[in-house]
């Protein structure tokens, strides 16, 4: 059981830290993936400011949750 919580904590940290530290890059990558099949070139896609902010707060929340699982 403790091994499972450790693994869940590491997974939350692996996905949460990049979103908290580099939210613009993570959001831009998501927008570029969404641009497949669109007429807009992937290089010209820019994320909205609200999306970057949401990614940052989601990353902070996931990181905090991962730390909580690691020390639980």
Oligomer classification? single chain
Helix content: over 70%
- Which runs of at least 5 residues are low in confidence (pLDDT < 50)? none
Indicate the mean pLDDT.
92
How many helical elements?
Answer: 3
Largest sheet: none
Broad shape: elongated
Look at the helices and sheets and give the structural class.
mainly alpha
The string of secondary-structure elements, in order, is HHH
Please name the defining characteristics of this protein:
3 helices; single chain; 72 residues; mainly alpha
Show the helix and strand layout:
Layout: H1 2-21, H2 23-34, H3 49-70
Helix pairs in contact: 1-2, 1-3, 2-3
General description of the model:
This protein has 72 residues and is an all-alpha fold. 75% of the residues lie in helices and 0% in strands. It is built from three helices and no strands. Helix 1 crosses helix 2, helix 1 runs antiparallel to helix 3 and helix 2 packs across helix 3. InterPro entries: DUF6199.
Q: Short summary of the structure?
A:
Helix content is 75%, strand content 0%. The chain has three helices and no strands.
């Amino acid at each position: 059981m403790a091994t499972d919580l450790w693994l869940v904590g590491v997974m939350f940290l692996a996905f949460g830290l990049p979103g908290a530290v580099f939210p613009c890059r993570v959001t831009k990558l998501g927008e570029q993936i969404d641009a497949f099949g669109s007429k807009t070139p992937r290089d010209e896609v820019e994320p909205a400011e609200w999306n970057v902010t949401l990614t940052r707060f989601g990353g902070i929340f996931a990181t905090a949750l991962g730390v909580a699982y690691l020390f639980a």
